[in-house]
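Need tokens for this chain, all 354 residues.
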Amino acid sequence: MTTSGTGHRGSGEGRPEPDPELLEELEFWIGPEDLEVDETGTDSDEPPEARTGPTQGSLVLVGTPIGNLGDLSPRAVAALAAADVIYCEDTRHSRKLLTHAGITGTSLRSLHEHNELDRIEEVVGSVAAGRTVAVISDAGMPGISDPGSRVVAATAQAGLTVTVVPGPSSVLAALVTSGLATDRFCFEGFLPRSGKERRQRLAAVADETRTTVLFEAPGRVAATLGDLAEACGGTRRVSVARELTKLHEEIWRGSLEEGAVWAESGPLRGEVVLVLSGAPVGGAVVVGDEVLTAALADRLSAGERTRGVVDEVAAEFDVPRRRVYELALEARMSGAGGTGQVEPDLPREAPPEE
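Here are the structure tokens for all 354 residues:
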């Protein structure tokens, strides 16, 4: 990567001169004193010492590449070079990124899902003491399905400066290449893996009129596309983006039903983003029989009476009671071995809709 025109740290002769415009911008946000930092950096588990001086500290969120290292912006390089300490998910991964950018001598500390709560007081204390603290994730913007949001909330609540250096985003990259509507969209992240919560989220996604962006692990894409087809209807349009900005980038577009078949045809690798078209505005939401049957089974297995369960499921998914009743009757008939024996509280004829 070309490092000319950035205010990064380097070693040896021939180090490029800092870009005056970048330095001026950094001075505006974090103060000129913060740009004068030493060359000794470590990956330490010891909290950074408080900095003395009048400089106001700040927490800087820095976007990093989602695959292609060439997407690390000059401003991101300058901001990371100027930081007193950088918090990151994996110090080994981030050290490689900094080395690629020519940044040396900056202290790295871990900030991941298992220790973010423990780091909050430390980060807030460093910013309050006048230090410039940068936060990055392994890829993309910190705080989006990655650690960082709780640290940001605590720093802001303390009345301290929080700013951002925007960067690559797999959410936006997948959205704009999907061929689907981009004027209104929502981000769902990862769906719950199973159970009632997953069914409820699937139903909510099916009802959403905006374009929906979701994350999914490569090994679960086929199953998730199948579940979405059941909840939304197999003809709903979807885009599957994987390995965005990398050498083997692939974007598949088609219906949910076709997508489930495509995903089953071979193992998918890399990071995957699903972009789902919205439900028709004012149209009926298609909730699959499988979703309703699973919801019935959960409640019936807990010993609830069938009549009450039918009412609850119909209300939860906003579908006709008669349809739910027929599914419950079918399930009971099947459970009785096809003998036609059903429990006393479930008559053969469905009661009229109220």
